[in-house]
Amino acid sequence: MILVYDDLMSKKNIALIAHDNLKPAMVEWAKRNIKKLTKLNICATGTTGMHVEEAIHLPVLKFKSGPLGGDMQIGAKIVEGAIDMVIFLWDPLSPHSHDVDVKALLRIAAVYNTPIACNQATADLLISSFEV
Hints:
Elements: H1 5-10, E1 13-18, H2 23-32, H3 34-37, E2 41-44, H4 46-56, E3 60-62, H5 70-80, E4 85-89, H6 99-111, E5 116-117, H7 120-129
Parallel strand pairs: 1-2, 1-4, 2-3, 4-5
């Protein structure tokens, strides 16, 4: 299913991103929070989105994979005001070829005052306090 821009503006929008070794954790998090996620538009970087969509059977607008520009695409949506919250399970202990993009995404979320969770504990707090 392709979401058009009007669809993105009718509900709150959440972006999901997970580094490779944390994709299973993102899928489990999405399963635990499926009731909240059904009330949101979900977008994600490519592979994360594919795994989440397959697991919870909700439509996910998928951008490019993170290393191929997906982090930057989500950052651009933050700048446009089209993302209300980001769950980004990133691995700070592993080197990433696109580390500059990761830092840029974190910076743009801070600049635009967009709530961003970088671990499961914070993701749980954000989703539980997010009004949908």
